[in-house]
Amino acid sequence: MNEQTKKLRQLRLTIILTSIFGLISFFSITVKTFAWGVGGTTLLYILLYPTFLLSTILIIVKVRLGYFLTLLTAFTYAILLTREVGKYLIFNFHNNVLFWVLLLPYFTFLTLIPLTAIFLTTDFKFAKTVKLTSIIVAIGIFIFSIAERFNKDYSDSIFVDAEINEQGQIKLNCKPGFADSRTFIVTTNLKGIEKQIKKYGEFYQGSYFLQNTKIKKNFRFSKLRSITLTKIGDNIISPQLTWTTKEIKGDVDFLQP
Q1: Measured between alpha carbons, how far is 250 from 228 in angstroms, rounded to an integer?
Q2: End of a domain among 123, 143, 168?
Q3: N or C: more exposed end of the chain, with fewer CB within 10 A?
Q4: Sign, Cα dihedral of 74, 75, 80, 82
Q5: What's this model's pTM, rounded to 2 decimal places?
Q6: How far apart, in whole angstroms, are the C-alpha atoms of residue 105 and residue 77?
Q7: pLDDT tens for each residue of 167-191
Q8: Distance between CA atoms of 183 and 223, rounded to whole angstroms?
Q9: How many independent structural domains does the chain possess?
Q10: Are residues 28 and 116 in the same domain?
């Protein structure tokens, strides 16, 4: 057995073991996705897992197509998980469960990208270039998961208790829900907003209850920078109001994604 053949066998074994680990570690999220869904990508998640299982079996029985399927599946999984991984790394890194069911599978898929690319191009003239490129792509995907959080908007819904005094000053008491004690306060005196609050709010004991108020939260990594009021229920607010953290008083911890 020459050195090249030995290296290919070792690489093939590494790919098989890595794929099996990925199948086991990502099984729980796949089942959860099947049961609850994850929006528009639900079907893709559900289809990818059996494809990944098939590709692993094909590699085990030495069918070359398996490597192409594994490369495609690993790349797709890595792209799909990038947003959730970025959120985990910035906001939920203390969550040990997510480390095992999200971060480890993610690194598994990133690892499979260069492994399969290297295996498929071993005899190619530009094998070294492909190797370097595939490693850069895998690392780049991971870096992007964090870098995109540098300046990112998140949507949320809150309950607002709006008070309007005789001078037209509007005080918005904002909470996660009606009965929640966590509150932050912002103020404004825009007449146009006063009219919309009175139109869409529910008047009760001197104030207006604004159910399901939509806001946009801007974060730089894990630090809140501003919030913007965008809708009252399904009604778009015009003009949309933005407050920086210096203008917000109270508890804003619940605004973290």
Answers
A1: 16
A2: 123
A3: N
A4: positive
A5: 0.88
A6: 9
A7: 889 999 999 999 999 999 999 998 8
A8: 18
A9: 2
A10: yes
